[in-house]
Amino acid sequence: MNTNDKIKKYFYKLDRRLFLDAYKESSEIDLPLPIGYGQTISQPSLVLDMTLMLMPEPHLRTLEIGTGSGYQTAILSEFSKEVFTIERISQLYEKAKIRLDGLGYQNIYYKLDDGTMGWKSFAPFDRIMVTAAARFIPPALTDQLAVNGRMVIPVGGSSGQELLLVTKAADGVINTEIKGYVQFVPLIGKYETP
Ligand code: SAH
Questions:
Q1: For 118-157, what is each residue's pLDDT tens digit?
Q2: How many angstroms does the Cα of residue 1 sit away from the middle of ligand 1?
Q3: DSSP-assigned letters across all residues of 106-165
């Protein structure tokens, strides 16, 4: 089985209900759902698409911005050497940590902070997943992306964003490709949507 098939298999096996407090009965509906504090758990089909686009690999390190419920974090954890995840809302940060610890995910490092600045002490990262909408690509994230690295990030205004795949070539040149159109909650901080 190739990595894509393994990711799909894991995704279909993982119960989204485990990452919800309310709306558990709606966990199988392919829509974002509220997780409190004005935030949402992402739509499952989009989590799968973005994970396949990111192409995590078991020997690579992944940075995630926007831990939220920890649903995307769990999938990244399974297919990364280590996951470094940053969340700015303390209650969500605490809950996700307890939840993912309880589920047995052991290669995750958690940080309560503004993720637009990245996580310098552990940089560079082979993969960067941003699950909130940025007005611009935060320069710290491009800086902290490893050579041959890939970043998936929604960029645009509050009424919708382009889903970008950002890659860094061996010579350090950055390439940006539009992969789709999405609607995420805003990335709060220096690069928030207006
Ligand atoms: N992947 C998550 C998505 C959660 S929604 C899931 O499926 O559950 C986006 C999350 O990004 C929210 O929890 C929000 O609080 C967080 N967020 C917004 N701006 C942020 C920032 N600057 N740094 C870190 N997290 C941020």
A1: 999 999 999 999 999 999 999 999 999 999 999 999 999 9
A2: 32
A3: -SEEEEES-GGG--GGG--EEEEEE-SBBSS--HHHHHTEEEEEEEEEEEEETTEEEEEE
